[in-house]
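Q: Given only this backbone (237 positions), what sequence would you predict?
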């Protein structure tokens, strides 16, 4: 049975890394004392070792040991045999490219679908969707494919921001960009605008919205709708 949490962000304003997610992390990783961390997204260009140390700080409250997948001679075997998996945020293009280079996309999809607990934040949540075409990141590298793991039947736009009425910024809003995505004939998949502090919780085939805030759902050819916290997402996507 799938056991997944896909969060918009790792950190909410004014709180330590991962701390707001501790209740759901405790549920996802119940009975587990060691997980594999995937640091490939490298936020701000930090090293894999630095990022893994940060992840360990976040999991310390649960007495869970964190081992970086980059420390293994055979990353495929590390993921295949993992008790739990955490994929952190950063640059989604770098993350998916590195996963493909290490033959980990299909491997991780298989083990998570088979029940290995999975936590994703930001980029780590983006790769759980159908593809990574709705990330907000700069394409700093060119992955062999935009196809992602397909653990959920829709895409996530992490860190979703609402238009600010008083702002003088003249650039595109997130809603504008997602509408551009759906205007292309190639793109049929629905997109969930996931605001900071919210997450998607998957238990088996059940998919629900978690956190205190609403999320914004975009479906091709339809007006976007607001979804309340704890909404059942299955019939909507």
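A: Predicted residues:
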């Amino acid at each position: 049975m799938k056991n997944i949490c896909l969060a918009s962000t790792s950190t909410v304003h004014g709180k330590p890394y991962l701390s707001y997610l501790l209740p759901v992390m405790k549920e996802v990783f119940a009975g587990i004392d060691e997980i594999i961390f995937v640091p490939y997204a490298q936020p701000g260009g930090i090293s894999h070792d630095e990022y893994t140390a940060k992840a360990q700080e976040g999991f310390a409250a649960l007495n869970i040991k964190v081992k970086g997948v980059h420390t293994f001679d055979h990353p495929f075997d590390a993921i295949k045999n993992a008790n739990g998996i955490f994929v952190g945020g950063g640059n989604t293009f770098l993350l998916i490219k590195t996963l493909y280079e290490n033959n980990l996309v299909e491997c991780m999809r298989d083990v998570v679908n088979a029940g290995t607990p999975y936590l994703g934040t930001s980029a780590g949540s983006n790769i759980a969707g159908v593809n990574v075409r709705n990330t907000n990141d700069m394409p700093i590298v060119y992955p062999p494919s935009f196809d992602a793991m397909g653990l959920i039947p829709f895409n996530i736009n992490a860190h979703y921001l609402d238009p600010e009425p008083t702002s003088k910024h003249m650039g595109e809003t997130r809603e504008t960009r997602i509408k551009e995505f759906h205007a292309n004939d190639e793109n049929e998949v629905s997109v969930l605008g996931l605001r900071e502090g919210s997450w998607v919780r998957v238990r088996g085939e059940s998919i629900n919205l978690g956190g205190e805030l609403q999320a914004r759902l975009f479906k091709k050819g339809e007006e976007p709708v607001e979804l309340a916290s704890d909404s059942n997402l299955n019939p909507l996507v």
